[in-house]
Amino acid sequence: MTDAITIAPRTGTAFHLKQWQSLTVVDPEGGQVSDLLAYNANDVREVISNGRTFDYEETTQLTTGNKLWSNRSQVMLEIVADEVGIHDFLLTPCSEATFKHFYPDKPVHRGCFGNLAEALEPYGIEPDDIPCAFNVFMNVPVDGRSGRIEVLPPTSKAGESVTFRAEMDLVIGLTACSAYASNGGSFKPIAYRVD
């Protein structure tokens, strides 16, 4: 088992994940979201897709046993363990535009989008190649009648985690989310481990 690596609050990183390796994302202090992206390491035009995933998994509530699919209908990751069970795959990574829209009284931050764009650039991935992220630990209930969404604080407790198994060689983008509402108004680190 490898040592955990810490992502500082409001930052991001990118790294290779080989087929069959496991990625465990940990919320060290509790109540912190992490945006996760996955690209085929051999052709980064193949990327994680929320639409394909919802279609093939027949649910928006993704947890242990569910797979995350690509825009080419290939399985990229499988969730093999999940201590939280509440994640979001509807909302796009927060960005400068997000902060201007939702937090006009707060300083503008480049958000997860900017952090991911910088981290993924060395892999040949451009900002326009960034899709909707799998938002680990993010709590976005949907009203079944109106369809209205709400962003509530994460339910994850300190030390809780979710583990994914790579089904192909991947480039992973991962953040410690920067948006106020997503994290209950505070910003904390995220840790991850590759095994």
Give the helix proportion (percent range).
10-25%
Shape: globular
Mean pLDDT: 96
Approximately how much beta-strand content do the residues carry? 25-35%
Strands of the widest sheet, in order across it, are: 1-11-3-9-7-6
Topology pattern, helix = H, strand = E: EEEEEHEEHHEEEE
Q: Structural class, from helix and strand content?
A: alpha+beta
Helix count from the secondary structure assignment: 3
Main β-sheet: number of strands, strand sense, barrel status?
Answer: 6 strands, antiparallel
Radius of gyration: 15 Å
Written account of the structure:
By secondary structure, the chain is of the alpha+beta class. It has one domain (5-194). The protein has three helices and eleven strands; from the N terminus they run βββββαββααββββ. The strands form two sheets. Strands 1-11-3-9-7-6 form a six-stranded antiparallel beta sheet. Strands 2, 4, 5, 8 and 10 form a five-stranded antiparallel beta sheet that branches.
Topology:
Elements: E1 5-7, E2 12-17, E3 22-27, E4 34-40, E5 43-47, H1 50-57, E6 67-69, E7 75-82, H2 96-102, H3 111-120, E8 134-136, E9 160-166, E10 170-175, E11 190-194
Antiparallel strand pairs: 1-11, 2-10, 3-9, 3-11, 4-5, 4-8, 4-10, 6-7, 7-9
Offer a concise description of the structure.
With 195 residues, this protein is α+β, with helices and mostly antiparallel strands. 13% of the residues lie in helices and 30% in strands. The chain has helices at 50-57, 96-102, 111-120, and strands spanning 5-7, 12-17, 22-27, 34-40, 43-47, 67-69, 75-82, 134-136, 160-166, 170-175, 190-194.
